Amino acid sequence: MAQVFSKVLSPTDITRKLALPIKAFNRFHFPEGVNYVHFMVTDSDGIRYNFRLAKRNSGNYSKPEITGGWRQFARNKGLQPGDMVTLNVQQGEAGAVHYIIKVTKMIRLFGRRIYEA
């Protein structure tokens, strides 16, 4: 299993769309002339979500962001700013690709950020 990205969530990541780091972009294949792809992710509870990854052209590079399915996932998980999401990819049999998403909740203890295991 390989990590695609890990990110501490901002308010915009929760309420609108999840902006991905540029380095995560190479883990997805966009057919020629297409600006979005759909992909399935499975969370730690075994629930599957259909996400839409769009590439928004910003200057000289494409900025990836998860739009479709993301807000429902964020609501279902009760995500808050400061929580962390990690997306991993696993190569299955016959070249099948499986995405697994993990949420790590942030808590404050004595004014310090601590992430639950």
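(the above was protein one; protein two follows)
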Amino acid sequence: MKNFTFKINENNYGVKIVSHEDNIIELEVNGTSYSVKMKEEEVKAKKTPTLVRKPSSATIEPIKINPSSSNTKIIAPIPGVILSINVKVGDTIKEGDALLVLEAMKMENSITSEKSGTVAAINVKVGQQVLQSEVMIELA
């Protein structure tokens, strides 16, 4: 396990700790094996560090759409793979309609329309990987 060198009264001692279980320590001093039993009050409990995360203070803002804009872009909220596309160019959709399914971190996320309109362009295809903030569908 660990090796130590001690100097006592001008004499050097090489100490190797072989094992440590409960209050029994097996060690070698200058090649001679010893079994040492520690007093119960000297045995300290092993401490395992605990990971503590500070809660995030950042608030998640929903994606805001400019209502005065004539074109609306549906962007990927997170990176993932397109599993299915539920609309085609020219379809008229209303707010809340399912547009496509995006798989991210082994979960299926249904991407819905936040605004009514007509599908002007579809910039993705089934099986394609998309990055966060990538434009997937454009509405007119």
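Reviewer note on protein two: The radius of gyration is 33 Å.
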